[in-house]
Write a structure and sequence with these properties.
GMC oxidoreductase; five-stranded antiparallel β-sheet; 2 domains; seven-stranded mixed β-sheet; 27% helix; 17% strand; alpha/beta; FAD/NAD(P)-binding domain; 607 residues; 17 helices; flavoprotein; oxidoreductase activity, acting on CH-OH group of donors; binds flavin-adenine dinucleotide; globular; Glucose Oxidase, domain 3; disordered N terminus
Length: 607
């Protein structure tokens, strides 16, 4: 407790009384905000202020234990967004959690460490983002990482992983049933890949690396980059429970000179803070575009609808939203083969918790999403039927990259892990998801009130390619479940029409119990529309690109047409990546830190 009270992290009331003298203001402690707060203050000279709407991460146990990540959802440190009704998903509003605490979503996420596909970044370069191809970003991926080898993964080439960075990664102990998932994936034609994070790319089936430290604790943006030593720097100030409500522009409207903030808990007390050199937005894919628009920077027509004077017409703010859509498919398993005992029984889980608290690691160090299979749905080895000979299916994948990932989880995942498999049953879950959706949506304002959440419309499954791709992903999951050796662990039945549901148990298991080869694409698509959920990876709403015509920021991550204002978070991705977004975001921030330091150094030289 003493540690918490002596925390160097400040709050809004401190800010009200503080003497203001900041060179750089960073808005939002997303993983990229944490990277920048660390890197920009490491010279001991640049005075940095990091502003976070949520609280500190230091006293929140569920954020530290890898296995309890889902307990953070719907908590006081989750923003708890919901999308607009999705017309292609039976008009459902989907739950979108986002972390509201130091570290942002990196403090509540599933801890999967993934570089994604090299050609994802080459695509960025092709789209006009010079220097942001794989060769340009790989040094930043390696700079951030401190990989600790793990027994059973001797086939990972350590020299291809980072070893001196602040962000700790390793492997956990996968359950035998999950190792059988990997073998079964090989059986259906997806090769084994010992390491998803190399220049050779990410196609294949394997166990995930996770961002877990040597004590078995989560290594988040906050724990890795905002260590007690970093927080003790006299030139770094971190303020929590403080919502940034507006960016302040100079009187000629050409330069960002500061921000307006409010007490997030009391929802009042506006205060203006000035930045001598830069304001950097790292408030994430939802809040960054909202904040730009609240400040009069965005699509003119939309701003006028909300009586916000347009100071800088920037049509792409809030546009180009992409997200990864997944379908959880549960398969009945034999008793004793899964980890349902850990998820569903607090008494059984207690010894595991005590073991973890004593730093003895154990089952609590699993992130649950232990394994995955990445593949292309146009791979002839997987033998899918062409839907229409005249209009053959064309995958949206990048060259040599996958378009589907199937995650394997050794428990029955219902409601993101908040509910377990039906009583008396055991399950594993496979989550096929679209890696390169064509569907794009937007973040738009509901009002000019900074406390009101914006409208989130990811526009899921709005193209036939996306529907076909997802259906092929689900088919492959069903094939893996019926392949050796996994099928021996499972207790599958034979359901003819999965969409005929008359009990909660059937609602959970019908698709997993059905035979893929007997189902039409339409029958599978019908199930997907009822069950699909987010995989939590929104990107692109302030994307990087050539000009105001196609994007929001340039290749130095400066907002087009404005001085002193940058964006550095997942909203700058020109197009989504083929996997999990956090390592790419951290790499973007590491690279951005070098770019910003160079420009700050030039400024200091002129001062
Ligand atoms: C439940 C979940 C599971 C995930 N699992 C994985 C995974 O296993 N692996 C992986 O690679 N990725 C995962 N992700 C995605 C990954 O965490 C994000 O891509 C990453 O955190 C970057 O997101 P972001 O840039 O949108 O910002 P976020 O991480 O969402 O952070 C934004 C921060 O800004 C703060 N903020 C927002 N508005 C304001 C404001 N106006 N003033 C002050 N502060 C503000 C927020 O409170 C928050 O701290 C997951 C995400 C979630 C939510």
């Amino acid at each position: 407790m003493g540690k918490i009270f002596s925390s160097p992290v400040k709050n809004f009331s401190w800010l009200e009384q503080a003497e203001q003298d900041f060179d750089v203001i960073i808005v939002g402690s997303s993983p990229s905000g944490c990277v920048l707060a660390n890197r920009l203050s490491e010279d001991g000279r640049t005075k940095v202020l990091l502003i976070e709407a949520g609280e500190t991460n230091s006293n929140k146990l569920w954020t530290k234990i890898p296995a309890t990540w889902s307990k953070t959802l719907w908590s006081s440190y989750d923003w708890q967004h919901y999308t607009a009704p999705q017309k292609n998903l039976n008009n459902r509003k989907l739950f979108w959690p986002r972390g509201k605490l130091l570290g942002g979503s990196s403090s509540i996420n599933v801890l999967i460490y993934h570089h994604c596909a090299p050609s994802d970044y080459d695509k960025w370069e092709e789209m006009g983002c010079e220097g942001w191809g794989y060769e340009g970003l790989r040094p930043a991926l390696l700079k951030s990482e401190r990989y600790t080898p793990h027994k059973g993964h001797e086939d990972v080439n350590e020299s291809e992983r980072g070893k001196d960075g602040p962000w700790q990664t390793t492997f956990g102990d996968a359950q035998p049933i999950m190792k059988n998932f990997v073998s079964a994936a090989e059986e259906v034609g997806i090769p084994y890949n010992p390491d998803l994070n190399t220049p050779r790319g990410t196609i294949g089936a394997t166990q995930f690396s996770t961002f877990v430290d040597q004590k078995g604790h989560r290594s988040s943006g906050a724990t890795a980059y905002l260590t007690p030593e970093v927080l003790a720097r006299p030139n770094l100030t971190v303020v929590t429970s403080t919502l940034t409500t507006k960016i302040i522009l100079s009187s000629d409207g050409k330069r960002a000179i500061g921000v307006e903030v409010a007490d997030d808990k009391k929802r009042m007390g506006r205060l203006t803070i000035f930045a001598k050199k830069e304001v950097i937005l790292t408030a994430g894919t939802i809040n960054t575009p909202q904040l730009l628009m609240l400040s009069g920077i965005g699509p003119k027509e939309q701003l006028e609808q909300h009586d916000i004077p347009c100071k800088h017409d920037l049509p792409h703010v809030g546009q180009n939203l992409q997200d990864h859509l997944q379908v959880p498919v549960l398969f009945r398993a034999k008793k004793g083969r899964t980890m349902d005992w850990l998820a569903g029984n607090p008494i059984m889980a207690l010894p595991a918790l005590i073991r973890w608290l004593l730093n003895l690691k154990g089952p609590m160090t699993t992130n649950c999403a232990e394994v995955a299979a990445f593949f292309r749905t146009d791979d002839p080895k997987l033998n899918f039927e062409e839907p229409d000979e005249k209009m053959p299916y064309v995958s949206n994948a990048n060259p040599g990259a996958p378009d589907i990932e199937i995650m394997g989880v050794p428990v029955g995942v219902v409601k993101f892990g908040h509910k377990q498999a039906p009583k008396g049953t055991n399950a594993i879950t496979m989550m096929p998801y679209l890696l390169q959706p064509e569907s794009m949506g937007s973040i738009t304002l509901k009002s000019d009130n900074p406390f009101e959440y914006p409208d989130i419309d990811p526009n899921y499954l709005s193209t036939q390619t996306d529907v076909t791709c997802l259906v092929r992903g689900v088919r492959t999951a069903m094939r893996i479940a019926r392949a050796n050796p996994l099928v021996e662990d499972l207790a599958l039945r034979d359901v003819k029409d999965p969409n005929m549901v008359s009990s909660e148990e059937e609602d959970v298991y019908n698709l997993g119990d059905a035979r893929e080869e007997k189902l039409s694409d339409e029958e599978i698509a019908k199930w997907c529309k009822r069950k699909a959920e987010t995989l939590f990876h929104p990107t692109g709403t302030a994307r990087m690109g050539r000009s105001i015509e196609d994007s929001v920021v340039d290749t130095k991550l400066k907002v087009h047409g404005l001085e002193g204002l940058r964006v550095v978070d997942a909203s700058v991705f020109p197009r989504t990546v083929s996997g999990h977004t956090m390592a790419p975001v951290i790499a973007v921030a590491e690279k951005a830190a070098d770019i910003i330091k160079e420009s700050l150094n030039a400024d200091f030289y002129h001062d």
